[in-house]
Write a structure and sequence with these properties.
- It is found in: Cytoplasm; Nucleus, Nuclear pore complex.
- It is a single chain.
- By secondary structure, the protein is mainly alpha-helical.
- The chain has helices spanning about 1-15, 35-60, 65-75, 80-90, 110-115, 125-145, 160-175, 180-220, 230-245, and strands at about 20-25, 25-30, 120, 125.
- It is globular and about 60 Å long.
- The protein starts with a helix and ends in a 17-residue tail after the last helix.
Amino acid sequence: AGSKLREVFDKINNLLSGKSVQTEGQTVSVTQHPQGLEFVCYKLAEKFVKHGEGEVSFHHDSAFPIAVVLSGIWELHPRVGDIFLAHLHKKCPYSVPFYPARKEGTSMEEYQRMLGYEVHDSKVEEQDHFLKRMSGMIRLYAAIIQLRWPYGNRQGAHPHGLSYGWRWLAQMLNLEPLADVTAMLLLDFLEVCGNALMKQYGIQFWKTMFFIQKSYIPRIEAVTSSGQMGCLSRLKNFVQKCLRAEEIPLPKGILTPSFWRT
């Protein structure tokens, strides 16, 4: 509910503003320790990324309430946003976007960590689980860049708005595609903020969609084996549908004005 989200936002904002906050039966304040504020900013940013790789990866709709709170906090407390991006880029290099290359002397285990895989006791996580986590983080990022906290003063620009999404898309399409990962990330990104990008960039956006269909999808196909076609087929269908309808659908779970009255 909108009212619940406001409570969450106010509590986080109060904590970061140095006010006393009740949590788990005790009163806490960042003024209790010289590094209190830095610690809270760090842990909070880390927590938002964890929401992306956990909650959002399983429940796509949850990207929007989480993102709108972070967007508002980012506006008032830019340090949280900076640390959030650092955590996000480390956990999901594709959010830069960047495909790390394996350097000489780097062990396979270390390289897999650089690619975003979780490695425990030399065991690498399953590909499906890895893709799900990356998907959740990209969806959260795509939601953040288009949302603003509705109760802010709105004087300044969004601290990390749609221009960053436009840049992400352009840079992504300049990279050589990877099997599995590229198709999934593009689809996630376009499903979540394609509508917002379409409204903002108009004809330029449609030229990009046409480029994806004509040039980029064939390049993804060239590196994709027959067993990895699922994501690619979904991306193909999505782009085709949108170009035919000349419309990008609103993302599922977007927060409507009526949500804030709940």
